[in-house]
Amino acid sequence: MKILLDECTPRVVQKRLPSLAISTVQERGWTGIKNGELLALAEEHFDVLITSDQNLRHQQQLAGRRLAVVVLPSNQVPVVVRLLDEIEAVLGRIQPGALVELQVPERP
Fold this sequence. Notes:
Helices cover 38% and strands 18% of the residues. The chain has helices at residues 12-16, 25-28, 35-45, 56-59, 77-93, and strands at residues 2-5, 21-24, 48-51, 68-71, 99-101. It has a five-stranded parallel beta sheet, with helices on both faces. The radius of gyration is 13 Å and the shape is globular.
């Protein structure tokens, strides 16, 4: 499974989940590309897009795509770090075209 991190998503996901094939928008040279074009490019090269863009599903047509999308509730590193286990679990079971929106985890 090939995973793309949107430019608004902290790279801690890539660094803390090294067993997964995760690339970033920045590494691909796609920084600044608008969501519609980014989704089309991502769908050609990746299986999953991880983003913290809360408006993506309202602004873009996601139905009928092969690309699965995981939406994080925040781009704040401490929040994302607390979600890493859940992100990894979701990636292990996500299906093509799925949209999964994660919630802010409760504090331990």
